Amino acid sequence: MDKEITYGNDYKYIPATSVDHLIGHEVLPDLFAYTIQIVNIAFVGHPDSQKFVLVDAGMPHSASQIMAITEKRFGENKRPEAIILTHGHFDHVGGIVELVEHWNIPVFAHELELPFLTGQKSYPEPDSTVEGGLVAKMSRMFPIEPVNLGNHIKKLPDDGSVPFMPGFRWIHTPGHSPGHVSFFRDEDRALIAGDAFITVKQDTLYKVFTQKQEINGPPRYLTPDWNAAWDSVKKLATLKPSIAVTGHGLPMEGDILTNSLEKLVNEFDKIAIPDYGKFVN
Ligand SMILES: [Zn+2]
Ligand SMILES: [Zn+2]
User: How far is the CA of 176 from the centre of ligand 1 (A)?
Assistant: First the structure.
């Protein structure tokens, strides 16, 4: 056991859950999305293969659920080659300490996200006054202190490749966080978007609960740089993804995805950027 691996002091269970909690979607034969409360994790790799990775690590206190679904999909005592992070927010690293200790595997993230994953820097306090509903109001209880993954965390390769995810490349999509990345596979145009855009109106508790599908920008209460966030959505839209797994909400594909992304790019100021809040002037 590696003592240097720790959560922040404000680590805690967050009582918010959607109807999709513990429901999985096989988006492609080698891409499986799974919902933990209100956030998605993804497995990349075919169940028949011995090699797969976990993208993101769920809500606080979800490690045992993540281990269970991993073994259910890939077999008893199977473990991923690595955990690949879209970013380091609490709802994407909530089970990571136990997972890294149990599996003894490396974690990869963008260089600019490393301070938030090595105990050096906290995220800005969420804006609980932002235009939006109950989840925005709840966001004041969200953990912001960094996890410390010690020497288990490594930066993503400079050449754009993604370790243990052949065919995928990482795309820097900042705005929601400085080192936020998305993962794209040119061959079939599959996209793992993280929170660069999401398919549910995350700040509204009712919509989070029901997971009503509706494209949106990144979660409002935790997005400090809206101009960068807009640029990131433009970058992803030009890739013309055929299918997208997002950090929150159900997977989206085909014409609905194409049209929704185009609408989001064109009307980002209306759809995504809040009318008021501390991160907008
Ligand atoms: Zn986030
Ligand atoms: Zn998130």
Answer: 6
Minimal CA–CA distance to 152: which of 252, 235, 220, 85? Answer: 85
| Dihedral sign for Cα atoms in the order 108, 114, 120, 126 | negative
Q: How crowded is residue 260: how many other Cβ atoms within 10 Å of its Cβ?
A: 20
Residue 254 has a pLDDT of: 94
Instruction: Name the pTM for this structure.
Output: 0.95
More confident residue, 137 or 211: 137
Helix, strand and coil in the chain, % to nearest 5 = 25, 20, 55
The ligand with the least distance to the CA atom of 124 is 1
Ligand 1 center–CA 89 separation, angstroms: 5
Residues 6+ apart with CB under 8 A from 149: 5, 96, 97, 100, 107, 117, 118
